[in-house]
Amino acid sequence: MLQSITRWKYLLLSLLLAGLGTAWPRLTHPTPVQPLAFPHSLHLQAGLHCTDCHRYPAQAASAGLPGVQECALCHARLRTQTPLVRQALAYARRGAEIPWRPVYRFSASAHVRFPHNMHIAAGFACSTCHGDLRKETTAHLLKPLNMGVCITCHRQYGASTECQNCHY
Amino acid sequence: MLNSDSSTNVRPRWAMIVDLNACTGCSACVVACRAENNIPITGPDEAAYNGTIQWMRIERNWKGRDRDFRVENRPVNCQQCDDAPCEPVCPVLATYTNAEGVSVQVYNRCVGTRYCGLNCPYQARFFNWFDYAWPSPLDVQLNPDVSIRTRGIMEKCSFCIQRINAAERQAEREKRPLQADEIQPACAQSCPAQALIFGDIHQPGGRFSQAWKDPGLETLLPEVGTRPKVRYARRVATPRSVLAAAPETPVAEVEA
C-alpha cells in the first residue's frame, strides 16, 4: 500500500517536472501585453521599412524605439480617427510616452550586451531574429534568448565565442 | 571576431605604464573610473568593513625622512597579471586572461566564492555584498555600456573592456586595422598630467611598445611573480637635503 502511494507520488512529480520543462520558456519569457496593440503588419504593408521607426540598428548597439512624437509625425494628419491612433495621440497630447513593454530583453543577471550594428554589418536581416512582422501585430519572442541560441550562431559563422565579447 | 583582419595576425596585448613622476595624486582617474564603470558607493558602514569598491585607487606612500621626506602617489588598479593568482582559484572559470591580455571578469558566471579576491596580492578585486542603489536622479549617470553588478559578484578593473570592444568593432565595421591611440580607458583619458599611458605591447615599432621594454620600469610586488601588465616609472627627484646644500644664487642674478 505504502509502496504504491510513493510510486504515485513519483509519477506525479515526474509529470509535473515534464510539464514544467515544456512550459518553462513561456513562463520565463511570456509575451507581454502592450498598452496599445501596435500593428506592425499594417505599417510594413503600407510600405514602411523597419529602420523608418527603429532608426539605428546599423549605427548603434541599440536599434532604438521611436517616441510617440514620431508616431504623431504621420498620424497628426493620417488616420486620426481609428481607435489605436486616437489612443497614441492622447499620449502625445499629454506629453507622455507610451509605456511599451520590452519583448526582446536579457535579464539583468545575464550581464550581456547585444550590439545590433555588428549583426547588421555581418549581413543579417532583422527578420533572422525578430521574424516576419508583416504577418504580426505586436512583437513576440521568436527565439528564446538563451546562450545556446547565441553560441550556436556564433560558432556557425565563426564569430568570437570569448566570454568578454558579449558579457561585460 | 567576425571578418578578422588577416593583415595583422598578431592580436594586440593591452598594457599600461604609470609615470610616477607625473602623477600628482589628484584622483581624477578614481572619479573617472567610478563614473565610467558604474561603480557603486557602498557607504560608510561598508567602508568600516573594508567593503569600499573602487577599481582605481591612489596609494600615498611616504618616502624618506627628515628634510628628504616626500610623498609618492601611486595609482593602483588591477595589475592585469600574465600569471594572475586570481584565475586558477576560481572554481567556475569566471575570470581568465583573454586573447588580448586583459584579465576579464565574467559577471554572469561568477558565483561569489571570493577566492579570487583573497588570492589577489594587490587587493584589486572587490565583492558586491549587497545590491547597491542609484537613487534618482543618480541613475541617469549610469553608463549603458557597462553591466550593473548585482549582489554576490566579484568585480575589478577591466581596462575598460567596453571601450576596447567598441573601438575594435568600429574598426571592424569600417574594415580597417585598429589604430594605436584609438583606445583609452577612462582613467588614462581623464589624467591631466598624462601619467597613465595605455597601449599595445605587440604593436610593432610603436612608441608604447618601445617604452614598455625600458628596464627602469618597475612592477608592484615582483617577488610574487605575477608578471603584471601595469608597470611603474619610478619617481626621480632631487633630495631636499641636496637642494638645500646647493649654493644659493640671488634672485636678481637669476632674473637678469
Morphology of chain B: globular
- Most residues in contact, chain pair and counts: A-B, 22 and 25 residues
Low-confidence stretches of chain B: 1-7
Write down the secondary-structure element order of chain A.
Answer: HHHHHHHHH
CATH topology of chain B: Alpha-Beta Plaits
Largest sheet of chain A, if any?
Answer: none
- Characterize the overall form of chain A: extended
Report the mean per-residue pLDDT of chain B as an integer: 89
Explain the overall architecture.
The complex is a heterodimer of chains A (168) and B (256). With 168 residues, chain A is mostly helical. Chain A has a domain at 27-65 and 100-166. Chain A has nine helices and no strands. In chain A, helix 4 crosses helix 5 (83-94). The relative contact order of chain A is 0.13. By secondary structure, chain B is of the alpha+beta class. Chain B has one domain: Alpha-Beta Plaits. Helix content of chain B is 21%, strand content 17%. In chain B, strand 4 and strand 5 form a beta hairpin. The radius of gyration of chain B is 21 Å and the shape is globular. The model of chain B is unreliable at 1-7 (pLDDT under 50). At the A-B interface, helix 6 and helix 9 of A face helix 4 of B.
TL;DR of this structure?
The complex is a heterodimer of chains A (168) and B (256). By secondary structure, chain A is mostly helical.
